[in-house]
From TrEMBL:
This is ATP-dependent 6-phosphofructokinase. Its cofactor is Mg(2+). ATP binds at G11, R72, S73, G102, D103, G104, S105. It catalyses: beta-D-fructose 6-phosphate + ATP = beta-D-fructose 1,6-bisphosphate + ADP + H(+). One of its GO terms (molecular function) is AMP binding. Its EC number is 2.7.1.11. It comes from the Bacteria. The keyword Nuclease does not apply. It comes from Schleiferia thermophila. Pathway: Carbohydrate degradation; glycolysis; D-glyceraldehyde 3-phosphate and glycerone phosphate from D-glucose: step 3/4. GO terms for biological process: canonical glycolysis; fructose 1,6-bisphosphate metabolic process; fructose 6-phosphate metabolic process.
Length: 323
């Protein structure tokens, strides 16, 4: 393999730049030529491809977002679109790809291999941490820290005004951000899609707390929780327990932005490095993962299809401590 391409795809996540930097510099140090593909699969189809050198990735390790931009490409979902993408890659002599993205991006890469034989290694770049086979995805730690900083601020005002804040965090299908940030913030309740939500029990818990002189509370809700999200929870609480001044905060896209944490920078560096080493070692259709202290390669099929479970121990801790 002499030439590889690097791209980011799907939702952006803090640490993607650190991963791009690691992949580019590792490839250069191994004597490869590297091309940056802008705007994910859409840029691949449109031929938005440029050579990259070491200087192109200077001063980006600390920056959120992705210098290569990212996109969701409907064209790539079509056979014609993928053919065009493959033609462009061949035009540049690109034989292997490093894809920094989530499950959809890896699915697209698998199809590109099946149809056109182009080999891809994935690095999991998503704040949701919902990929099987890695303890953490690039961006997850930063997103959790962003939530914690925001909720700490909300707690100050909650305590001053006897308020209940219902805070909605990202996680359409997964409660990883909610669970970890909820424990870190000492939330009174954490509602996640993976476990049933009993609103009556939540209200009783808040009532019990109030009766014990606990006059400010924080409830963290993952956006995909069956309750329907923070506004629905707030409505139900207001209807059934009117002592609190109930407020809703939806943290939204601030969770995707910001400078990556040290943890994410190191993880992204390890993963970008391993992705290129893996490609050179003949690995493809696989995602780089971190399991404990080990860097591993997880077949795309497993990373995408196996459901990653929430840590039961953390769920237990959250239930025990949030009284
Ligand atoms: P995130 O987890 O942040 O949402 P993602 O990689 O899962 O990231 P998606 O939007 O699901 O984000 O996928 C990114 C792109 O991958 C899509 O816009 C599309 O171009 C391509 N893709 C996803 N699924 C398929 C598929 N089944 N066939 C072909 N291409 C696909």
């Amino acid at each position: 393999m002499k030439r590889i391409g690097v791209f980011t795809s799907g939702g952006d996540a803090p640490g993607m730049n650190a991963c791009i930097r690691a992949a580019v510099r590792t490839a250069l140090s191994r004597g490869l030529e590297v091309f940056g593909i802008y705007r994910g699969y859409q840029g691949m189809i449109e031929g938005d491809i440029v050579p990259m050198n070491s200087g192109d990735v200077s001063n980006i390790i600390q920056r959120g977002g992705t210098i290569l931009k990212t996109a969701r490409s409907d064209d790539f979902r079509t056979e014609q679109g993928r053919r065009k993408a493959a033609e462009n890659l061949r035009k540049y002599g690109i034989e292997g790809l490093v894809c920094i993205g989530g499950d959809g991006s890896f699915k697209g890469a698998s199809i590109l291999y099946e149809e056109h034989g182009i080999k891809t290694i994935g690095a999991p770049g998503t704040i949701d941490n919902d990929l099987y086979g890695t303890d953490s995805t690039i961006g997850y730690d930063t997103a959790v820290n962003t939530v914690v900083q925001a909720v700490d601020k909300l707690r100050d005002t909650a305590a001053s005004h006897n308020r209940l804040f219902i805070v909605e965090v990202m996680g359409r299908d997964a409660g990883f951000i909610a669970l970890r940030s909820g424990i870190a913030c000492g939330a009174e309740a954490i509602l996640v899609p993976e476990t049933p939500t009993y609103i009556d029990a939540l209200i009783q818990k808040l009532r019990d707390g109030w009766n014990r002189q606990k006059h400010s509370s924080i409830v963290i809700v993952a956006e995909g929780d069956e309750s329907g999200g923070a506004y629905e929870v707030a409505k139900a609480v207001k209807q059934n327990f009117d002592r609190y001044d109930v407020r809703v905060t939806v943290l939204g896209h601030i969770q995707r932005g910001g400078s990556p944490s040290a943890y994410d920078r190191v993880l992204a560096s390890e993963m970008g490095y391993a992705a290129v080493e893996g490609l050179l070692d003949g690995k493809f259709n696989a995602m780089v993962g971190r399991q404990g202290r080990e860097i591993v390669f997880v077949p795309f099929e497993k990373a995408i299809k196996h459901n990653k479970e929430l840590n039961k121990h953390l769920l237990q801790i959250a239930a025990t401590l949030s009284i």
